[in-house]
Amino acid sequence: MTAELRELVRLRTRYVDEHSDRMRQVHRAVDLGFPEFTRHVRMNTVLATAILARYPTARSFGNVSVRKLACLTYDGRHQVGEVLARALIETAKISVGSHHSEAYGLQVKYTCSDMELLRNRVKQLDQEIEGKFQTHEVGKLLTTIDGIGSRTAACLIAELGDPSRFRDAAALASYVGVPRLRQSGKRALSGARGLPLGNARLRHRLWMPTLVAVRKNPWLRVHYDRLLAAGKRPKVAIVACVRKLLPAIYSVARNRRSFVPHVR
Predict the structure, then answer these.
(1) Helix 150-160 crosses helix 102-133 at what angle (to 10 degrees)?
(2) How far apart are CA 3 and CA 161, in angstroms?
């Protein structure tokens, strides 16, 4: 079960990374073909790729009517709408974009198509992961920790197996690569970087859940606020909160019980 979950999570991560790469490609292309587009539409949305797949450059908006663009459906339900359609068409007329060739437009269209394919694959993998996850005892218990959702818990299981296999919480933190908080947070750091020890994938996956947890989890919020009050920088405090989160993960896995916070 754990091995299958690990492969699914890593495959999902690969497709997410590929989607991000395509997103950067489209963003660079739009900067040359219709740079004003991002004033009206955020690039990391289904709406953006749906529009650009049909109208990849500023010049391609020249022959489209407001009504036709307004009726364009994206995500299977919503339409572009008249207000946005009119704004895009009017902006395209005065765009400073300089790349309008057919080959350039095809490049944008094909990249948008790749993004849609990758997005659908990620959705399918999410369903597969959720199905595997529902029957995993430890994984389900980990979601009782505020800030850890099913995706993060699945990643934990995929990378760690059973967290209780470690000698103790300190050994788990060492494996992840989260150091103890030793500096004041006020002293300037040297330019030299530390060695990239630990599991970088897992540290990356724990960063955003910890940002959520310090807002929604009273137990972790108290710790975070205490560190800030002591003069720690926000990023240093978040790293310390990741380290405090790991003993909770270890305890839940070892005791096979839901998490019960103790706020002091």
Answers:
(1) 80
(2) 8
Domain residues of the chain, as ranges? 2-130, 137-187+196-255
The pTM (predicted TM-score) of the whole model is 0.77
Within 161-199, residue ranges assigned H as helices are 169-176
Tokens 């036709």 belong to residue: 68
CA distances from 188 to 183, 192, 197, 227, 231 (A): 10, 12, 22, 17, 13
**Mean pLDDT: which of 120-129, 193-202, 254-263 is highest?**
120-129
Which helix (H) or strand (E) segment holds residue 148: the answer is none
Task: Tell me the residue ranges of DSSP E strands in 1-107.
Answer: 73-74, 78-79
The SS3 assignment for 64 reads: coil
Q: How far is the first Cα of the chain from the last one, in angstroms, to the nearest whole number?
A: 38
CATH class of 2-130: mainly alpha
Please identify which residue in the block is written with the tokens 């980990």: 142
* Span 215-258, pLDDT tens digits: 888 888 999 999 999 999 999 999 899 999 999 999 999 999 99
Q: What is the pLDDT of residues 88-131, one digit of tens each?
A: 999 999 999 988 899 999 999 999 999 999 999 999 999 998 88
CA atoms lying within 13 Å on the CB side of residue 217: 26
Determine the Cα–Cα distance for residues 5 and 155; give it in Å rounded to an integer.
8
Residue entry with tokens 């009504």: 67
